Amino acid sequence: MVVEVPRILFLMPKDIYKNWPIQNDFSRRFNRIPSVTYPLLAALSDGFECDIFDGLVRPISLERYCELIRRYQVVCINCVSSAVALNTEVNIRLIKRLAPGIKIVLGGQHATFFSQEWLSKGADFVVRGEAEIAFPKLLRAIRDNAGYEAVAGLSYTLDHGRKTFHNPDQEFIADLDQSPMPRWDKLDFKPYDLECGSGGYTATLETARGCRHNCNFCVSGAMWQRTQRYKSIPRVLAEIKALYGLGVREIFIADDNFGSDASRVMSIFDAVLRSGLKINFKSFLRADVAVKNPDLLSAAARAGLKEVFIGFESLNEQDLKLFAKGYSTETVGQYQNVYKELQARNIAVHGLFLLGYPGQKELRHPYRLYQYVRKICDVGMFADYQPNIGLVRSHSTYNIGETVFKTGNMFYYDRTLVPFTINGQRPRNRSGFMNLLSLFPLLNIDHFLKRTPRGWILRRIYKSLVQSIAFEVDLKMVRCLLIRIWPFMSVDKKLQLLWEQYAGDRQVGLLLKKANPN
To answer: What value does the mean pLDDT of the chain take?
Structure first.
């Protein structure tokens, strides 16, 4: 008996749900960086025909998009956050209406913690946690239409969604060097270019996985159970060389806690220097790591580090304690020095900040806050505080110390809709206003024209803003904006209306009609 081998599509969904004027996942638009997840999954798909398509960076009509999807029997989607949940759901409903026989596999942090909800929304399988062990077993089970119960870490439905199963969790792989080399050859690199003058493509590198910190706004600690595992230096260098051979000259290091082992990171950069490879690097970096390890900054700059994303979160020590950030008083007092040290090495700084926690004194004087933020980073990026979805559930009440959280629908995220209260107060949305303030440097033509890391950042942001605001607007997007800002309506009601505008049966039917005009 010949078993048909299904064709697999690793899909970054087309942005059907557009949150005008600024998308929820706007950062992905000006940082055009491909995820390492799909090349890794492709490497785990030995014996299966697979392709990768990124609907976010590849312009495609809805008709051609549907034609593409119909060619495959399995569609795999990585859903990493609540910011992309509604768009992911719209795509799932569209695919199921387009071709009910297609099997949809979800993975990622959001899918891991909302596995039951995703099964109810049309996913056939959810791979919880990491994929190295579970995913190849799942593909064989799909091919044979049997054996799902043996796949640890799998949630799935049978009998057309009428039966739901959640297998026991799988253990983490002990040695990340056993993870296969990502199949970057499966990816078309042409759309990925950070325009940093390197003359090459952009890719992502994972040198470690996990985080030992327990910040209560971040899902990483819960996802990886506060563990961190590392790839060996030879393995990391081998991946860098492989990417270089494919024309990559800009690498984003995706580690959640990059620099936690300073001596190891210095060894990585020393290996890059000895190799003679000319590459621009970008990475996350904790401020306390920069304070304690100035030699690390020098080694990183020599090896090609050009941009860092630092989670300052707040300028107030009390806020940082509430966030469980783990920064000491010494670290907060050194913010300006950290920036000066990075500036001296020509490394641009994206400063990440949280707003909306009741009692934040900074918000009483937003312009004063902006003026100080300019002293510690090149571009401030503000987000509203949201409790860690790995620890809380929708429609629940829980405590962090003396603080009482009462949550609404935590499945979706919209920067204008806060789905929880803190000590009976609904946090005020201020991130939009602060992000507008932080764009003032765009008006400085001197910085805008310079071919420096700061100039690259500003030009990318400007280009992405123009595309988002000026060229992607339609009547539905304006209508949804009015729903989000309407003052006399509950958050849950607004979310329901937004869902109906994009994911309701009537709207999905209209999408199908638009995709098949004949």
So the answer is: 87
pLDDT value of residue 97: 93
Q: Residue 135 and residue 112: Cα distance in Å, rounded?
A: 14
DSSP 168: P
Q: Hey, which residues does 53 pair with through a beta bridge?
A: 11
Judged against a pLDDT cut of 80, whether residue 479 lies above it is answered with: yes
Q: Which two tokens stand for residue 68?
A: 């593409």
Query: Starting at the edge strand that comes first in sequence, how are the strands of the sheet with 403-407 ordered?
Result: 397-400, 403-407, 420-422
- In tens, the pLDDT along 335-385 reads 999 999 999 999 999 999 988 776 666 656 677 788 888 899 988 888 888
> Rounded distance, CA 109 to CA 8, Å?
21
Q: Which residue in this structure is represented by tokens 């071919």?
A: 451
In this predicted structure, the answer to whether residue 514 has a pLDDT above a threshold of 70 is: yes
- Collapsing DSSP states into helix, strand and coil, what is residue 265? helix
Residue at 339: amino acid letter:
Y
pLDDT at 301 over 50: yes
Residues 229/242, Cβ–Cβ less than 8 Å: no
Beta strands at 280-284 and 305-313: parallel, antiparallel or unpaired: parallel
DSSP string, 292-334: H-HHHHHHHHHHTEEEEEEEEE-S-HHHHHHTT----HHHHHT
The pTM assigned to this predicted structure is 0.92
* DSSP-based three-state secondary structure for 266: helix
The CA distance from 443 to 439, in Å, is: 8
For 101, 164, 171, 406, the CA distances from 97, given in Å and listed in that order, are: 9, 21, 35, 36
Q: What is the DSSP letter of 149?
A: G
What residues have CB less than 8 Å from 96, skipping those under 6 apart? 102, 104, 122
Can you spell out the DSSP letters for 362-384? GGGSHHHHHHHHTTT-SEEEEEE
Name every residue whose Cβ is closer than 8 Å to that of residue 52 and which is 6 or more positions away in sequence: 9, 10, 38, 39, 42, 186, 187, 188
- Chain segment 82-124, per-residue pLDDT in tens: 889 999 999 999 999 999 999 999 999 999 999 999 999 999 9
Residue 108 in contact with residue 79, Cβ under 8 Å? Answer: yes
Determine the 3-state secondary structure of 347 from DSSP.
coil
Give the per-residue SS3 of 440-489.
Answer: HHHHCHHHHHCCCHHHHHHHHHHHHHHHHHHCCCCHHHHHHHHHHHCCCC
CA proximity to 188, closest of 78, 54, 316:
54
Q: Tell me the Ramachandran region of residue 243: left when phi exceeds 0, alpha when psi lies from -120 to 50, beta otherwise.
A: alpha
In whole angstroms, what is the distance from residue 408 CA to residue 512 CA? 32
Q: Minimal CA–CA distance to 181: which of 224, 137, 231, 136?
A: 231
Two tokens at 497? 């209306």
The 10s digit of each residue's pLDDT in 307-331 is: 999 999 888 888 888 888 888 777 8
